[in-house]
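> run fold Glycosyl hydrolase
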Amino acid sequence: MSRSPVRFGVNYTPRRGWFHHWLDFALDDVRADFDDIASLGLDHVRVFPLWPVFQPNRTLVRPRAVEQLVALVDAAGERGLDVAVDGLQGHLSSFDFLPSWVTTWHRRNIFTDPDVVEAQARYLAELAGALADRPNFLGMTVGNETDQFSGEPHPDPDRVTAEEAGRWLSRLVSACEAAAPGRAHLHSSYDVAWYDGTHPFTPAHAARIGAMTAVHSWVFNGTAQRHGAEGAATGLHAAYLIELSKAWALDPARPVWLQEVGAPAPHVPPGRAAAFARTTLLNALDCQGLWGVTWWCSHDVSRALADFPELEYGLGLFTQEGRPKDLAGAVADVAREVREGTLAVPAPVRRTALVVDAGDVVSAPSRGALAPGGVCFEAWMRMASGGGRPAVVLAQRVGEEGHLAGRGIEEVVGVEQLR
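> ok
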């Protein structure tokens, strides 16, 4: 499969058993799912080992589970698919998966307890090391939105300061790099890291730790509620997060991975999902430095599985029976057009930037202004929906020597100018 300048993939949700498939691992089922994915012309998958299944005791990483992960990666490679692996699951589709050695009688903080952190580092290193010689292994993500364990609305959060969160992330990313040097090791947060000034995981963490910046774009965060399914801001949300992340990056060329984006009903009605996908992807492709897009998700969740939030059941590109939806066709079409060169990427430099002030650059206590409904969010959306192509620059960095020039920014506009 030829590679486009931007990668297109999907977050792999096994059709049989969802992520519980690790308990009854069947490689033939995985192969069939990967055949579906490859049929769309996608080039990678992101996969999710369940932490308590792989590391049921602090000093035990199950060899058989690691072998199954390696077999999965090899099966993907046979179909031309590269694989990114998330380690600490952690949190998936409203369910938490924590090993018994950090809960109840063994309750320990997963971010700050020294024994827990060292066990996490060993676990991630073991997975990375087992895959280090696989040519289609992209790298490790520390875990899926593990920041959600650190504060509200989690019912039993593991409290951590921003400084401690930064140390934790750096330690675990370093463990992955030591075990599999040169791969794209990173971490991910859900968008509260960009939008809530009280959250200990910050934009600086996202944009400065790891090989690239991951953003997760979900329009049920108030964007679709405020602007509607067909509103310009709804289709621009992913692009906004990509551009927002660059305001904190120290390297202007730091790649950004749109690691999760999906079409959640009813916020995006099923009949509009394909149009939403195309609009979202075209807007994201207009951002320089986009490494790739990984749609959420590959297959619908079976209705035989209970207690998922309603929107989680229907997010797949494929139905439970393995039939591609119109949504799958939309994603596949954009990937093909980019691969064939009929969609030109990367985009030209964005020469105008909106100046935003989230307070202190590292802790960003005023992140609420960046959130849907916030003055910075709405100002950027007015510029972008009016035909502009705004970047974002932090107020504290406007005067930083070389910062604007290094990003190709020639003009800055303040929020107050747009009111």
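The chain has 13 helices and twelve strands.
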